[in-house]
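Postdoc handover notes: sequence design on the structure in folder B. Input tokens:
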């Protein structure tokens, strides 16, 4: 089975955004959840080239355009985040599940 790669957008406490690319989103999701950044956008790609092209496009867009894209994709992003949360819970010992 082919593994998806992911393009994501994080926003920190001051409103600055970080656009990232990951082929290990399970690990990245865990890392993000432990920092003070919020995951605002998440999109999967089957082909790494397509994901990197999308990241490059996002890097060139204005803040207003990125905000519009985030709003338009909020529902789908929340679904992906919920799937990652549930996946994390399945891999945690029973007594650590309440921390997420």
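Designed sequence:
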């Amino acid at each position: 089975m082919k593994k998806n790669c992911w393009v994501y957008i994080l926003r920190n406490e001051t409103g600055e955004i970080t656009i990232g690319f990951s082929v290990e989103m399970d690990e990245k999701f865990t890392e993000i959840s432990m920092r003070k950044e919020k995951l605002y956008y998440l999109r999967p790609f089957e082909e790494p080239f397509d994901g990197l092209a999308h990241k490059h496009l996002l890097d060139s867009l204005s803040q207003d355009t990125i905000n519009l894209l985030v709003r338009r994709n909020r529902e789908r992003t929340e679904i992906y985040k919920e799937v990652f949360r549930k996946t994390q819970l399945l891999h945690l010992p029973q007594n650590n599940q309440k921390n997420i």
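Context for whoever picks this up: The chain has a mean pLDDT of 86. Don't rerun without checking with the PI first.
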